[in-house]
Design goal:
Strand content: 5-15%
Number of strands: 8
Number of helices: 12
Structural class: alpha/beta
Number of domains: 1
CATH class: Alpha Beta
Bound molecules: flavin-adenine dinucleotide
Order of helices and strands: HEHEHEHEHEHEHEHHHEHH
CATH architecture: Alpha-Beta Barrel
Oligomer: single chain
Shape: globular
């Protein structure tokens, strides 16, 4: 089953995201954590990709291992710091391992790396290439609060439109902490004629350091209710985790209730967080 089939089915979907280790030394721990999440039988799991390309084989390996456990997977693939030959090799690898879904991304040039003549500028170029290669269901990223590189939200939506025209079959959102931001974004993209399904990305923020990093990268708006929780519990990791799980679950329930049928949780290789969130919505997604 492709991700498109899963997220357009009547049953609400709940999926989880994991990331590969930076070196082979971390593989055992990552494998154990991802397998624990797979045991929850989520709708699907996605595996991120290091934009530098150094861990590219791990993404495919982890995805293939999870598929053997019966969980549909989606491999992320970035292009901005890759050559066409490297992208082609990764597509060959994913095909050989039986992966059928790709989240096609531009990525960001890693710190300390310079590229004189980038072979890709935008995710839409990668998307068109994967479409022409054939055999993959292709997703892309979108940003309810706008991508930091876009000067205006109209420019951002235009970029998104090009990506969809290039063959992107569905979109997964960057995290957001106020559902009204997503509902407003949905209205604007539908008005602009973008009709592909949208998967809402939800991040349970269990670590206060994450929040600073996330806001610096993505410019997310943090509602005061959210800031108060972090301020109150940042010195109590167990309490913060519990509050983060409840906050995320409340967001998810509200999304399902408002007709957003597909939710992707940035579970960050944390099986306990994935388990607790899934338990909180178990009757809703049954
Ligand atoms: P694009 O869609 O190319 O957009 C980037 C910018 O260019 C936007 O401002 C857009 O409006 C503009 N634009 C797009 N097309 C055009 C055009 N034709 N003309 C002019 N402007 C244009 N990063 C990783 O390294 N690995 C991952 O695994 C990963 N997974 C992610 C998963 C999700 C769900 C999300 C939301 C992000 C993920 N990222 C990942 C981060 C992502 O790579 C960065 O946010 C990156 O800066 C943008 O990638 P993109 O695919 O959205 O780029």
């Amino acid at each position: 089953m492709t991700i498109f089939d899963i997220i357009t089915a009547d049953k609400p979907s709940l999926s989880f995201e994991v990331f590969p280790p930076k070196t082979s030394a971390g593989m055992e721990n990552v494998r154990a954590a991802t397998q624990e999440i797979a045991a929850l039988k989520p709708s699907y799991m996605s595996i991120t990709y290091g934009a530098g390309g150094g861990t590219s084989a791990y993404t495919a390996d982890i995805a293939a291992g999870l598929q053997q456990l019966g969980v549909p997977t989606m491999a992320h693939l970035t292009c901005v710091s890759s050559t066409k030959a490297q992208v082609r090799a990764q597509l060959d690898l994913l095909r050989a391992k039986g992966i059928r879904n790709i989240l096609a991304l531009r990525g960001d040039i890693p710190q300390g790396m310079t590229i004189d003549h980038p072979e890709y500028r935008y995710a839409s170029e990668l998307t068109a290439e994967i479409r022409d290669y054939g055999g993959f269901c292709i997703g892309g990223a979108c940003y309810p609060e706008g991508h930091p590189d876009s000067a205006t939200s109209a420019e951002d939506i235009l970029g998104l439109k090009r990506k969809v025209e290039a063959g992107c079959q569905f979109l997964t959102t960057q995290m957001f902490f106020d559902n009204n931001i997503l509902y407003n974004f949905m209205y604007r993209i539908r008005e602009a004629g973008i009709s592909v399904p949208v998967v809402a990305g939800i991040m349970p923020v269990t670590n206060p350091k994450q929040i600073k990093r996330i806001c610096a990268i993505s410019g997310n708006t943090l509602p005061s209710r959210f800031i108060r929780i972090v301020d109150r519990y940042s010195n109590n990791p167990a309490a913060l985790r519990q509050a983060a799980v409840v906050y995320a679950a409340e967001q998810i329930i509200d999304l399902y209730a408002n007709g957003i049928n597909a939710v992707h949780v940035y579970s960050m290789n944390k099986p306990e967080v994935a388990r607790e969130i899934q338990a909180m919505v178990s009757e809703i997604i049954r």
